[in-house]
Write a structure and sequence with these properties.
single chain; 279 residues; mainly alpha; 3-stranded parallel β-sheet; 45% helix; globular
């Protein structure tokens, strides 16, 4: 989300966008949690426990929803779990629309640890895909979301492009990963996701964004880089909003009260808007 908000600041400097990131680690839209999650310390949070509060407090115009990675519970495909995922997405969609918000769904990222990659077959030939195991569950979840486009849903695919990118990289770098655990992507992984988000919203802007990433704004200049300012502001607001809304996920940073966080964020935004792209 930091990269996407950076895009908004740079590409549309005269417009005001309020981006509120209330994503919660470990959460599911299905309400499911595996036995012994987090070494038995707590079950996975359920989005629907807090969704009404999220909508009431943030009053969004547009929602980006990316679920699925945790919803298969890192187990083989199961029709019951899949049904829970679909039901959770439908409930999220219905509540968003009832609140007057548009919603754009993102397919889940790719699960790609080296320990899960497919091996050559008995004939010694390379596998058709190196992305095996749990990623095949996510393939199903992503495919279902994409099928909903026929019903008029707006769905941006990050799963397919991530699959394709990793497969291509592994042709020359067999041990390539975005994340050692296959889940928590590196900066490069998040950059790829941001590209797909931009391409899904405004394809004509993608070439501009790719060129911009090579500018001074992504290199440290003075005390802090442009991107780092955006990230600092985003983290400040995310912690504040999550704390204000409330959730059942232990171990999260305690955010400032909103009446303290918002003025600090406004000061950071002033600093951010001092930067201008070169002609």
């Amino acid at each position: 989300m930091d990269a996407f908000e950076t895009f908004l600041f740079l590409r549309f400097p005269d417009r005001q966008f309020e981006v509120i990131n209330v994503g919660l680690p470990s959460e599911t839209v299905s309400g499911l949690s595996e036995d012994g999650h987090a070494d038995g310390k707590f079950p996975r949070p359920d989005l629907h426990e807090r969704l009404d509060r999220v909508l009431a407090k943030t009053k969004p115009d547009l929602i980006f929803a990316c679920y699925g990675m945790n919803d298969g519970i890192y187990l083989p495909f199961d029709e019951g779990r899949f049904a829970k995922f679909r039901d959770g997405i439908e409930r999220l969609r219905a509540k968003a629309q009832a609140a007057g918000a548009q919603i754009i769904h993102l397919t889940p990222p790719t699960f790609h640890p080296l320990s899960a990659r497919n091996k050559p077959g008995a004939d010694g030939q390379p596998p058709a895909t190196t992305l095996g195991g749990y990623n095949e569950v996510l393939d199903r979840y992503a495919a279902w979301l994409l099928e909903q486009r026929a019903k008029g849903w707006r769905v941006i695919d990050i799963h397919g492009p991530m699959n394709a990118f990793i497969e291509e990289k592994r042709k020359t770098e067999p041990n390539f990963v975005f994340a050692k655990d296959g889940v928590h992507a590196s900066e490069a992984g998040h950059a790829l996701m941001a590209e797909q988000l931009i391409a899904g919203l405004s394809p004509a802007e993608l070439d501009w964004w790719r060129k911009t990433q090579g500018t001074e704004f992504f290199a440290t200049s003075g005390i802090v880089s442009f991107f780092e300012l955006v990230r600092k502001r985003g983290r400040l607001l995310a912690d504040a909003w999550l704390s204000d809304i409330g959730h059942n996920r232990p171990g999260m940073a305690k955010g400032l009260p909103l009446d303290e966080a918002l003025p600090k964020a406004a000061k950071l935004e002033t600093d951010i808007r001092k930067y201008h792209l070169p002609p």
